[in-house]
Amino acid sequence: MNSTREEWKKAPSADAPEGLVKADLERALADTEGKRRWVVRGAWLLAVAAFVAGGVVVRERQKPKGLARFITQSVSRGDIVEKVQATGVVQPVLQVNVGAQTNGRVTKVYVDYNNIVKKGDVLAELDQSLLGAQVTQQEAGLTSQRAQVTAAKADLDTLRIAAERTQRLFEQNLASRADFDSIKGQLEAAKARLAAQEANINATVAQLGASKTNVGFTRIISPVDGTVISRAIDPGATVVASFQTPTLFIIAQDLRRMRVMADIDEADVGKLKEKMPADAVVDAFPGDTFSGTIEQLRFSPNTVAGIVTYSAVIEVDNPDGKLRPGMTATVTVRTREVKDTLRVPNAALRYRPSPPKAPDGKPLPQPPEEPLPKGKGRIFLFEKSAFGEETSKPILVDVGITDGLTTSVSEPSIKESTAIVTDELDQKKKGLF
Q1: What pTM value is reported for the model?
Q2: Domain boundaries, the chain
């Protein structure tokens, strides 16, 4: 039977059984499909290997041989504006603290926050019953004292007449010296009593005036035109002004013009002068700039944590009332400006080349650098040579103003787009590439 199947495999014929022929065909097709699948897989593997190999070759060709020695930037041309910036607090130009000069209980309050008041308007009233009683009592005492003065004047007139009569009798030897001296003494005593009564009246009048003034102090009056920005009392509260005048209201005279109390760093205060224009911005209105003027530079220093600043009073316009007391403002003052000048990065003026090193890696000693003349700076021109072996050439330039990032310079040997060194790289890091 086996020999028969081997013969049919070698030469299938019409006489072979149908099942054996079908199985042989399926086996042949499976072998053909498997060979085709391995061919496709091999082609994909070859394509991926070729792509990776090409990438490696390109990278190796483009790979730098080493690090460039310097970091450079080009000299540019443009405008430079020297600015001084500081922060400060927005305050009204005139802010008045309104207090009470007498004690009492608050009976009425006529204004509230943001109310506009005029000079002389009544802001609040205190209970004046006790002070009114004192006024009434002193007025009654004054009336009594005036009556006593009238009686003293009458007594004085009587004694004056008696003294004149006694003097005539004494001159006619009809009265003794003792009688004359006695009546004369009584007359002088009456004059003294009248003077004392008149002095008491003056004292009472003064006390009465003070009491009436205190009664007037029970009405809290606005001293200026302005806006109420603070109110510290309510009806029923007790005001005690015995030792210190309490602040009941704060009134800003004119909120259409404000001032910024800015803290200027001691390094910048020498650049500022009074009447310089200034701009202020606040976080509440980031798109708005408020123009102003430096009105005052105070000499008194402010020292906080070892940092010394000086206060600058900057008045700014506030026509729309956007600025409010207490806001934090950033003030910018343009101190100097140059147009169309050569500019170099400040890093180029700070750069100094590293000293050469000995074979053991230690820096070799170098002579001290010569101090720069006033108004001069040193920059290093980039000189192209072999990659990684570039050199630089120091030159002196005239330096002008700076905006914190770039500095104005002038030197005939440098022009716009000239490459200058701002830093150098550590050659030990070549392995990073």
Answers
A1: 0.61
A2: 2-60, 70-80+342-432, 97-125+222-252, 128-217, 253-336
With CA atoms as reference, report the closest residue to 314 among 276, 270, 345, 347. 276
Question: Up-side HSE of residue 148: CA atoms within 13 Å toward CB?
Answer: 16
CB within 8 Å of 243: residues ≥ 6 apart: none
* Cα 402 to Cα 337: distance, rounded to the nearest angstrom: 9
Give the H/E segment covering residue 27: helix 18-62
- CATH annotation of 253-336: 2.40.30.170
pLDDT at 61: 62
Q: Closest Cα to residue 95, out of 252, 255, 260?
A: 252
* Residue-wise pLDDT tens digits, 382-427: 887 666 677 888 999 999 999 889 999 998 888 888 899 999 876 5
d(CA 189, CA 407): 95
C-alpha–C-alpha distance, residues 160 and 166, integer Å: 10
Q: Cα(55)–Cα(53) distance, rounded to whole angstroms?
A: 5
- How far is residue 343's CA from residue 292's CA, in Å, rounded to a whole number? 30
Residue 104 identity (one-letter amino acid): G
Task: Quote the CA–CA distance of 215 and 102 in Å, as a whole number.
Answer: 9
DSSP sequence for 379-412: EEEEE--STT--EEEEEEEEEEEE-SSEEEEE-T
Distances (CA, A) of 175 to 79, 159, 218, 384: 115, 16, 64, 138
CA atoms of 291 and 369, how far apart (whole Å):
46
Residues 6+ apart with CB under 8 A from 228: 111, 112, 113, 114, 115, 116, 117, 123, 249, 250, 251
CATH of 97-125+222-252, one of 3.40.50.1240, 1.10.540.10, 2.40.50.100, 2.60.120.10: 2.40.50.100
pLDDT of 293-352, one tens digit each? 999 999 999 999 999 999 999 999 998 889 999 999 999 999 999 999 999 999 999 998
Residue 321 neighbours by CB distance under 10 Å: 10
CA distance 65 to 50: 25
